[in-house]
């Protein structure tokens, strides 16, 4: 009976949102809580409020529900607002400090892609003000409305974009609004060689003349691969993908230079290559380049073949769980973790994802990023992390030892333990071996291993 009453209350609260009965919604949510979802679509109360254009309810639900939460189709509330053309609500969502504007749904669309439909309608209606509003929100006049649900594209006339429609209808007052993209505006125009190089060059330093290296699988030194329902499958080729983000130099701050960061990257490349991993190392990227490279990694088809993914980030750490990039900007660690959630990176769904943070010293506290952080907004309903393990060089979030020419004791101990035991020991056993080695090298450091739904045994190779 309790189950039936709970189901009835859940249905009732969605009906109250649909009818715009705010008081009833508040009353019912005291019993249902904010985490309730529709069974058929897996939409949240925030999705429902967006769908029915309930602005006050959207503001209310944003206190309890993360704007990046997804439905069964992988749609965030912003995807839905864009598809419906609810621009006022979309602006509210975009103003949220945790909003990820680049999040893609299961059709590989960002919210900007879904703005194509209302943009086409605005061109059809010859509404200059509406077109300008949609363009300011990120609508692309050259994006094709080709999704099966779009229903707008005229295949006979071959009209799929707002620019094509404006030309066909001779909307001369609208065409000047559709500026052509320049190469500088297109993030895809940045060449890989401008921001990093592949890791094989790290194994042979004479070829290391860029900022990005590729890790190439050298040999498979593993023994018999462990299998079973309680063990992550690691019989893939490549065994895994490793992404190294190393920040050793910082703009106009020679005092922050991290000596030995390339030594750490070389040692990591050597260790993971011998275990059958492939990957890339990136050195001293800006914040924008970092986000761009992580987006490229997330969308790599190689991840579909790889058994796992390992991310190793070394830089200066911030007390509020940020790390410093070469342009003196900071990136939230939680943002990086969220970037590889199942809905964001389906290639890594049900696969182990390890994040290793070697954040030293923490540069001046007064220079920390301002504004709300993830910690201040925690507690909202959101998609959980799954199959994620984080290893921090210090339980305080960052260590106070300086880098040396030989690299950090944290990476040194990690590579040493992996080289000796990765083929025979499971992660928990490896961690105990690592603790012994690290304690010898850095007695005052206390590392931390954090589990986020990492529910099986894991062997690196």
TrEMBL record:
GO terms for molecular function: cysteine-type endopeptidase activity. ANK repeats lie at residues 73-94. Residues 238-364 form the Caspase family p20 domain. Signal peptide: none annotated. Residues 387-439 form the Caspase family p10 domain. Keywords: ANK repeat. The keyword Magnesium does not apply. It holds the Pfam family Peptidase_C14. InterPro entries: Ankyrin_rpt (IPR002110), Ankyrin_rpt-contain_sf (IPR036770), Caspase-like_dom_sf (IPR029030), Pept_C14 (IPR002398), Pept_C14_caspase (IPR011600), Pept_C14_p10 (IPR002138), Pept_C14_p20 (IPR001309), Pept_C14A (IPR015917). One of its GO terms (biological process) is proteolysis. It comes from the Eukaryota. Belongs to the peptidase C14A family. This is Uncharacterized protein. It comes from Scylla paramamosain (Mud crab).
